[in-house]
Write a structure and sequence with these properties.
The structure is a single chain. With 326 residues, the protein is an alpha/beta fold. It folds into 2 domains: 132 residues, NAD(P)-binding Rossmann-like Domain (Rossmann fold, 3-Layer(aba) Sandwich), CATH 3.40.50; 181 residues, Rossmann fold. The chain is 39% helix and 12% strand. The strands form 2 sheets. Strands 6-5-4-7-8-9-10 form a 7-stranded parallel sheet, sandwiched between helices. A 3-stranded parallel sheet has the order 1-2-3, with helices on one face. The radius of gyration is 22 Å and the shape is elongated.
C-alpha cells in the first residue's frame, strides 16, 4: 500500500496486533514490489495485507512469491490488484468492502434526507439572495415524508441504504437483476424493473459497480423517465451515469443532482455542472476516510487471525463474484 495509507490504517495499536498475528520484519510496508530487496523478501512471504496503492499482482510479481497463500485487502475493491494468475494459483483473497460500505451508506442517507428538503440547492440560493428568502417556494415541496426513493443496485451499499432509509416514512424501490424479491421485501423495499423505478422515484440513488455492462446504465433515456424535480444521487462510480445527459437535464432545471463521483473524475474545469445551482459536487468523500479506514484494517486483521487458526474466511472474494462486483 502507499505510505500515506499505511500511516492512517496502521497506527500503533493496529501494527501491534499485526505483529502478534504474524512474523513481520522491517520495513513493514512497501508500495514497490519490484525493488530488489522486496523481491527477495517476497520469496518468504505467506500472506500479503494490501490496501490502496498496492501494485497489480502480475504473474511476474507472483513468481517472486512462491509461498503466497492469502491476500487480505483492507480496502474495498480488489479489481486493481488481482489478476487471473491469483485465481489460477488458488490464493485466498478477502476484502473489507463490507466495512467500506458503512460510511457510503451513511453519506447516502444524509444526501437523501437533504435532497428531500432541497437543502444543498437552497444553500446555494442563500449565497446569492442572502437577506431575501422569497426564492424558497421555487424549489417545490420541501419534505421527506411520502417520498419514493429508488435504489439502483442491491449491493453491499444498496442494502445498507435501504436498511437506514426504512426508518423514514418513504416508499423504497429497488432495481437489481441479481436481487431476490423476497430478500428485498424482507429488507423493507420492493423489487421492480428499472423503468418502473425511474418513473416513480422522487430521489434516485445509484449503488452499482463500474462494469462494461453498467457503463451509462443511467443515460438520456433513463433520466427522461424521472419526474420533474427529481434528484439523482451518485456515490457509486461516475461511469454508471451519462455525464452529458445529466448536464442537459440539470441545465434545463428539470433534475437536481448530488454527485460524489463523476465521469471523468474530477470533471473538467469548464464543466457546466460546477456552476449549476441545482447540482452539489463533493470530491469522492463518501467512502472510508481517516478513522473510518480503521474498520477495514480491523477486518483484514480479523481475516488474518482466522487464517492463522485454520478457520474459514468471512469475506472471501471468488472469481465468480469478482466478475460482477466493484
Amino acid at each position: 500500500m502507499d505510505p500515506a495509507t499505511f500511516a492512517v490504517q496502521f497506527p500503533a495499536p493496529s501494527l501491534a496486533r499485526l505483529r502478534s498475528l504474524a512474523e513481520v520484519t522491517d520495513p513493514v510496508s512497501t508500495d514497490d514490489l519490484d525493488a530488489p530487496s522486496v523481491r527477495r523478501r517476497l520469496r518468504e512471504v505467506d500472506v500479503l495485507v494490501t490496501s490502496w496503492g498496492c501494485p497489480q499482482l502480475t504473474p511476474e510479481r507472483l513468481a517472486d512469491a512462491p509461498r503466497l497463500r492469502a491476500i487480505f485487502h483492507c480496502a474495498g475493491s480488489v479489481r486493481s490488484l488481482v489478476t487471473d494468475e491469483v485465481w489460477r494459483r488458488g490464493i485466498l483473497v478477502t476484502t473489507a468492502a463490507d466495512e467500506n460500505a458503512v460510511p457510503v451508506a451513511e453519506f447516502t442517507m444524509a444526501a437523501v434526507i437533504f435532497a428531500g428538503k432541497k437543502a444543498p440547492f437552497l444553500a446555494q440560493d442563500a449565497r446569492e439572495h442572502r437577506d431575501d428568502w422569497s426564492y424558497v417556494p421555487r424549489r417545490g415541496e420541501l419534505s421527506n415524508r411520502g417520498r419514493t426513493i429508488g435504489v439502483v443496485g442491491y449491493s453491499r451499499v444498496g442494502r445498507r441504504v435501504v436498511e437506514r432509509l426504512r426508518g423514514l416514512e418513504v416508499d423504497l424501490l429497488v432495481a437489481d437483476p441479481y436481487a431476490d424479491a423476497a430478500e428485498v421485501a424482507a429488507g423493507g423495499a420492493r423489487l421492480v424493473e428499472l423503468p418502473e423505478l425511474l418513473r416513480a422515484s422522487d430521489i434516485l440513488t445509484l449503488h452499482v459497480p463500474a462494469l462494461p455492462a453498467t457503463r451509462h446504465l443511467i443515460g438520456a433515456a433513463e433520466l427522461a423517465l424521472l419526474r420533474d424535480g427529481a434528484t439523482v444521487i451518485n456515490t457509486a462510480r461516475g461511469a454508471v451515469l451519462d455525464t452529458a445527459a445529466l448536464e442537459r437535464e440539470c441545465s434545463a432545471g428539470r433534475l437536481d443532482a448530488v454527485l460524489d463521483v463523476t465521469d471523468p473524475e474530477p470533471l473538467p474545469a469548464d464543466s457546466v455542472l460546477y456552476t449549476l445551482p441545482n447540482v452539489m459536487i463533493t470530491p469522492h468523500i463518501a467512502g472510508s476516510l481517516g478513522t473510518e479506514t480503521l474498520r477495514m484494517s480491523d477486518s483484514a486483521l480479523d481475516e488474518l487471525e482466522l487464517f492463522r487458526n485454520g478457520r474459514p474466511p468471512r469475506a472471501a472474494v471468488t472469481p465468480d463474484a469478482f466478475e460482477v462486483s466493484a
